Automatic annotation (TrEMBL):
<keyword id="KW-0805">Transcription regulation</keyword>
<comment type="function">
    <text>Involved in transvection phenomena (= synapsis-dependent gene expression), where the synaptic pairing of chromosomes carrying genes with which zeste interacts influences the expression of these genes. Zeste binds to DNA and stimulates transcription from a nearby promoter.</text>
</comment>
<protein>
    <recommendedName>
        <fullName>Regulatory protein zeste</fullName>
    </recommendedName>
</protein>
<feature type="domain" description="Myb/SANT-like DNA-binding">
    <location>
        <begin position="8"/>
        <end position="80"/>
    </location>
</feature>
<keyword id="KW-0804">Transcription</keyword>
<dbReference type="Pfam" id="PF13873">
    <property type="entry name" value="Myb_DNA-bind_5"/>
</dbReference>
<dbReference type="GO" id="GO:0005634">
    <property type="term" value="C:nucleus"/>
</dbReference>
<comment type="subunit">
    <text>Self-associates forming complexes of several hundred monomers.</text>
</comment>
<dbReference type="InterPro" id="IPR028002">
    <property type="entry name" value="Myb_DNA-bind_5"/>
</dbReference>
């Protein structure tokens, strides 16, 4: 078996991926409709893969670039949620050293904030417990 090194995406490729996806809200949402089908999405990912593979760095097919986007998006969501949990915590522990990089902030701008922060328009119901005298 051949010992091959894994080549990671270059910073330029990541920036270009974000730039290309910024222009394509249908592809970011991943929701198919009668006017935006899986075939349309695949063709757009193929175009993105061709553009990104022309830049020095890693070479991937369209499905691998799509997976790169999904993985990046997932990692940024998790990191942002961790930072939010720490900020909203009760304190007493050491200061968190995790911060988002500029590229991660750009990815975060493309991600639906409800998936991280929750929907602020929905109020939580208030539950009151009343305990009566149980000694009867």
């Amino acid at each position: 078996m051949e010992d091959s090194k894994k080549i990671y995406c270059s910073k330029t490729q990541k920036e270009m991926l974000i730039q290309l996806l910024t222009k394509d809200s249908q592809l970011i949402s991943g929701k198919f409709t009668s006017t935006f089908t899986f075939k349309d999405a695949r063709n757009r990912w193929i175009e993105i893969a061709d553009t990104l593979n022309a830049i020095p760095g890693c070479v991937k097919d369209w499905s691998q670039w799509k997976r790169t986007w999904q993985d990046s998006r997932s990692k940024v969501r998790s990191k942002k949620a961790m930072v939010n949990r720490h900020v909203n915590g009760t304190g007493g522990g050491p200061q968190i050293s995790q911060t988002l990089t500029p590229i991660e902030n750009q990815i975060l701008d493309l991600v639906n904030p409800i998936t991280i922060d929750g929907d602020e328009t929905i109020s939580m119901p208030v539950t009151n417990f009343e305990f009566g005298d149980i000694s009867s």
